[in-house]
Design a protein that fits this description.
CATH superfamily of the largest domain: Chloramphenicol acetyltransferase-like domain
Number of strands: 18
Distance between the termini: 64 Å
Shape: flat
CATH architecture of the largest domain: 2-Layer Sandwich
Oligomer: single chain
Strand content: 15-25%
Length: 417
């Protein structure tokens, strides 16, 4: 009997996915271990490796379909001796978890939404919701006899603030419109293009928003003299005779890992009732791709050499760009590093990647006039900025962390001691 090919669970948190691409077409032979499709989860695009032999008898879900629940049927496999005739009485219909309304229904719904947006019913719906307004704005609205339920808030989460009341104009054409209606009017008058938000982009947005809202960030910056590290890098690469090419970032990953080993308070997860201290320094390295930001992990970076760090980073970065990272290659880690120095950014602050205790933001190395031994000299300087979770680490501990990190960076020979 033909077998159902179902949407796999490719990560512990995956409940649904997008069928990005079929690697096989109907009639193709499938051998155990063949990649039959690319599946986009909430975190990455992963190759679907099938474990049985047969022929792809029928494709039920087309490329680009999103919202496919785990275990939903996406195709049918014909086993040895079976033909297309065996599909005739085979119930291969997918589950009804993906509901695509017919075109006529889409048109009708769109028309109804358009009609509703131009009638007073929209104002009634808006007024039925809880209005967020600051106490001061409420007082001013009362003094000016303004119905603040018609005012569009510009504060956090749409909250009405003082300036909204002061700038309010009683104009029926505006007062009966909510923010989304106004945005639609504005958009209609300017050229634009739209792209569907990917599951990966949605996950990044959700995680970073939650991080900024829930983690009490604070920031410490430090200037590092890079002269010794640049010289050490030059010597190491020269000795390698083109067998490897160590980058500044490879040195920084090593320095960061060693510092986490020295200051264990920073190498931890906040878990409300407990704090988990890691015995290994696993560094998540931010990599920009076309689909979004990924943080593949260099594991146990404190106990491996620069060449191995360099090779690992290159391999993981390429996998991230190709959408071929495995879950175990980007999930977890104990700390993050983000380097924008190659873009000429002098310094910046980064958002912590939960559940890490912090992230190191690395700026560009540039020549600056600095005071060395009471003399003004030109040196290669770099600014690093730590974003730390105040629930885990207080300022004094973070300052010690930055001092030790600076010492490793400015004295690279200490990394091998």
């Amino acid at each position: 009997m033909p077998k159902r090919i179902t949407m796999p669970a490719l990560s512990p948190t995956m409940t649904e996915g997008t069928l990005s691409k079929w690697r096989k077409k109907e009639g193709d032979i499938i051998k155990s271990g063949d990649i039959i499709a690319d599946i986009e989860t909430d975190k990455a695009i992963i190759e679907y490796e099938y474990t049985e032999d047969g022929v792809l008898g029928k494709i039920l879900i087309q490329e680009g379909t999103s919202g496919i629940k785990v275990n939903d049927v996406i195709g049918v496999l014909l086993e040895e001796g079976e033909t297309a005739k065996d599909l005739e009485n085979f119930d291969s219909s997918p589950k009804k978890s993906i509901q695509t309304p017919p075109q006529s229904q889409v048109t009708t719904n769109t028309q109804q939404a358009t009609i509703q947006s131009s009638t007073p019913q929209l104002t009634q719906k808006t007024q039925s919701k809880r209005i967020k307004i600051s106490p001061l704005a409420k007082v001013i609205a009362k003094q000016k006899n303004i119905d603040y339920t018609n005012v569009i808030g510009s504060g956090p989460m749409g909250r009405i603030i003082k300036k909204d009341i002061e700038n309010y104009s009683i104009n029926p054409s505006i007062a009966t419109q909510n923010t989304s209606t106004i945005n639609n009017v504005i958009s209609a008058n300017m050229p634009y293009t739209e792209e569907k938000t990917t599951g990966i982009r949605k996950t990044i947005a959700k995680r970073l928003t939650e991080s900024k809202q829930n983690i009490p960030h604070y920031y410490l910056s430090q200037d590092c003299n890079m002269d010794s590290l640049l010289k050490a890098r030059e010597d190491v690469n020269l000795a390698g005779k083109d067998k490897y090419k160590i980058s500044v970032n490879d040195f920084l990953i090593k320095a960061l890992a060693l510092t986490l080993r020295d200051v264990k308070e920073m190498n931890a997860y906040w878990q409300e009732d407990t704090i988990r201290y890691h015995q290994r320094s696993d560094i998540a390295v931010a990599v920009a791709t076309k689909t979004g930001l990924f943080t593949p992990i260099v594991k146990d970076a404190a106990n491996i050499g620069l060449v191995q760090i360099s090779n690992t980073v290159k391999d993981l970065a390429q996998k991230a760009k190709d959408g071929k990272l495995k879950p175990e290659e980007y999930q977890g880690g104990s700390f993050s590093i983000s380097n924008l120095g190659m873009y000429g950014i002098k310094e910046f602050t980064a958002i912590i990647n939960p559940p890490h205790s912090g992230i190191l933001a690395v700026g560009a190395t540039e020549k600056r006039a600095v005071v060395i031994n009471n003399e003004i000299k030109i040196a290669n300087m770099m600014t690093i900025t730590l974003s730390a979770d105040h629930r885990l680490v207080d300022g004094a501990t973070a300052a010690i962390f930055m001092q030790k990190l600076k010492n490793y960076i400015e004295n690279p020979v200490s990394m091998i001691l």
